[in-house]
Amino acid sequence: MSDVRRPGVFTHLAIVILLLVAYLLLWPIHMDPESWTPPEAPELAGPYAVNDKLAATTRLVDGQMRGPEDVAEGPDGFVYGGLADGRIVKVAHDGSSMTDLADTEGRPLGMHFDAAGNLIVCDAYKGLLSINPDGEITVLTTEQGGKPFVFTDDVDIASDGTIYFSDASWKYHQKIYKDDALEHRPLGRLLAYHPDTGETVLLLDNLYFANGVALSPDESFVLVNETWKYRITRYWLTGEKKGTHDIFIDNLPGFPDGVSCNGKDTFWVGIASPRDSLLDSLLPHPFLRKIVARLPNFVRPDTADYGFVLGLDVNGKVTHNLQDPTGKGFRVVTSVEEVGDRLYLGSLKDTAIGYIPTPR
Predict the structure, then answer these.
(1) CATH numeric code, 9-103+190-357
(2) C-alpha closest to that of 280 among 240, 320, 253, 310
(3) Statement: residue 355 has pLDDT above 90
(4) 20 to 30 Å CA-CA from 9: which of 1, 35, 137, 191?
């Protein structure tokens, strides 16, 4: 009788391990990571000191929605939010009712009402939209210079009707935004849409995930958040610096997402999550980031369940610092809107629209 032995358990295990290693090292992927060494993360001290000022956030219609990423107050007095399932809902100020305005069948993100009472929406998949009070949707623009929008993100509107908005990435859509972070190349754009002519104009490209957009009180400049660079960039619209850009604030302690202006003296910035030390340690090493990109999405670095809002003056100085380290009051803040005596909060992951008394 032959003495040939069948492969044992350890042999099979070794083969599996070799295949797994080969996959992690060699499997083709669609990204080409760029090396970047981030500045040392600022400590959560001084102007960024840990506190619990968001812990007592009032939660409207809690549990009846998912991911109201941006919020806006309408001329009818309702608060509007865009949800993960594509719906745009309007909520009473006391939370007593919630009704649907429209369903974009995409992912509504940034939104702002124009002078005519239409809700202008950046839908991550559908482009720049206008929704009238009856819920009828009009597509305003879906591309610029022959390059389609892949991740239409945030919006603000000037007094002359010009719509400023961002395309976070021309390569990665909303469901795979982590891939954009891992590649870490400047794939974002800041744009302007002119309703009178229907023209879409490129203002800035080569932005590292062009996110929140907000005009200054005098409309002399517009801000755009570069989430992966932990900074906010300023583009000048008037004056001697018109057409140029500079850094408004740099080396933030987290990922800046939405930004809005109260029209007077304060920009409110939603910090979606504090800095991730693992991601920072990977950024100088493209090869390691390719390995991480081959891992399942659930084991990659992700946003923390943390509430974080900053207030900045018109010169980029921190004036307010609102946090909830537990994330139980409100978490993953992606938009902040000051409406009278309330500061409304939107979130990519939470299940409510939140608000706190406007800090003074």
Answers:
(1) 2.120.10.30
(2) 253
(3) yes
(4) 1
Taking the C-alpha atoms of residue 189 and residue 154, their distance in angstroms, rounded to an integer, is: 11
Which pLDDT score, from 0 to 100, does residue 1 have? 45
Distance CA 349, CA 65 (A): 10
Domain boundaries, the chain: 9-103+190-357
- Give 39-87 pLDDT, tens digit per residue: 999 999 999 999 999 999 999 999 999 999 999 999 999 999 999 999 9
- Torsional sign, CA 293, 277, 230, 81: positive
Q: 181: closest CA among 302, 277, 269? A: 302
Summarised one tens digit per residue, pLDDT across range 13-47 is 655 555 555 445 555 667 899 999 999 999 999 99
CA distances from 230 to 155, 170, 276 (A): 19, 20, 11
Going by pLDDT thresholds of 50, 70 and 90, the confidence category of residue 302 is: confident
Q: How would you classify the pairing of strands 210-215 and 221-226?
A: antiparallel
- Whether this prediction's pTM lies above 0.85 is answered by yes
Helix (H, G, I), strand (E, B) or coil at 356: strand
Q: Are 222 and 213 in contact (CB under 8 A)?
A: yes
Distance CA 65, CA 98 (A): 10
Pull the structure tokens for residue 331. 């978490």
CB neighbourhood size of 113 (10 A): 18
Length of the chain: 360
Output the six-digit token pair for 34.
Answer: 């760029």
